[in-house]
């Protein structure tokens, strides 16, 4: 299977700096597979840009690991880096990655609210579930879908 990919990032209207890290590359295999990952450093926390870069590096260096194991490696690396440097205490990031095989199979790993979507036959559908406070409230029936976008804790990643 031939993959075409691109990446882009925008700082938005609120922040002065960008805390995103992106990694598209051909995997080490010769079968044409592709690993892509995005990490979004948590705004308002210290060193979000450091957390996102550490996460991407750890996830992509985990040779031949399953997608979920790559996310675990990323989480451990961010935690270890924060523990080793008091100035980085509290840093965090979201992460979504996809390991696309040459045969068209996709394995995903995900934490936080950086989403993965599937585009098929002109229709876009969300594949991942946000790990957020409001997503948990919605799933438990405590709020409605209409309340999600205006809830005061809509940006709280869990």
Describe the structure in brief:
The protein has 158 residues and is of the alpha+beta class. It has 4 helices and 6 strands, in the order E-E-H-H-E-E-E-E-H-H.
Describe the structure.
- With 158 residues, this protein is α+β, with helices and mostly antiparallel strands.
- The chain has a domain at 20-113: Phosphatase 2c, domain 1, CATH 3.60.40.
- It is 27% helix and 23% strand.
- It has 4 helices and 6 strands.
- It has helices at residues 48-61, 67-84, 133-139, 145-148; strands spanning 20-26, 34-41, 93-100, 106-111, 117-120, 123-126.
- Strand 3 (93-100) and strand 4 form a beta hairpin.
- Helix 1 packs across helix 2.
- The radius of gyration is 16 Å and the shape is globular.
- The mean pLDDT is 86.
Assign the CATH architecture of the domain at 20-113: 4-Layer Sandwich
Mean pLDDT across every amino acid position: 86
What is the radius of gyration computed over CA atoms, rounded to a whole number of angstroms?
Answer: 16 Å
Question: Within the CATH hierarchy, at the fold level, what is the topology of the domain at 20-113?
Answer: Phosphatase 2c, domain 1
CA-to-CA gap between the ends? 36 Å
Number of strands: 6
CATH superfamily (homologous) name of the domain at 20-113: PPM-type phosphatase domain
Quickly count the helices: 4
Helices and strands in order, then pairings?
Elements: E1 20-26, E2 34-41, H1 48-61, H2 67-84, E3 93-100, E4 106-111, E5 117-120, E6 123-126, H3 133-139, H4 145-148
Antiparallel strand pairs: 1-2, 2-3, 3-4, 5-6
């Amino acid at each position: 299977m031939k993959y075409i990919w691109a990446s882009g990032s925008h700082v938005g209207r609120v922040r002065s700096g960008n805390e995103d890290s992106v990694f598209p590359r051909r995997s080490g295999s010769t079968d044409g597979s592709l690993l892509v990952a995005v990490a979004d450093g948590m705004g308002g926390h210290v060193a979000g840009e450091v957390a996102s870069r550490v996460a991407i590096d750890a996830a992509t260096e985990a040779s031949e690991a399953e997608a979920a194991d790559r996310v675990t490696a990323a989480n451990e690396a961010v935690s270890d880096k924060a523990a080793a440097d008091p100035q980085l205490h509290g840093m965090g990031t979201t992460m979504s990655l996809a390991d696309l095989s040459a045969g068209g199979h996709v394995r995903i790993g995900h934490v936080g609210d950086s989403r993965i979507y599937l585009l098929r036959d002109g229709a876009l559908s969300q594949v991942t579930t946000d790990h957020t406070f409001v997503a948990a409230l919605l799933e438990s029936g405590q709020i409605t879908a209409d309340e999600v976008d205006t809830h005061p804790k809509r940006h709280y990643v869990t």
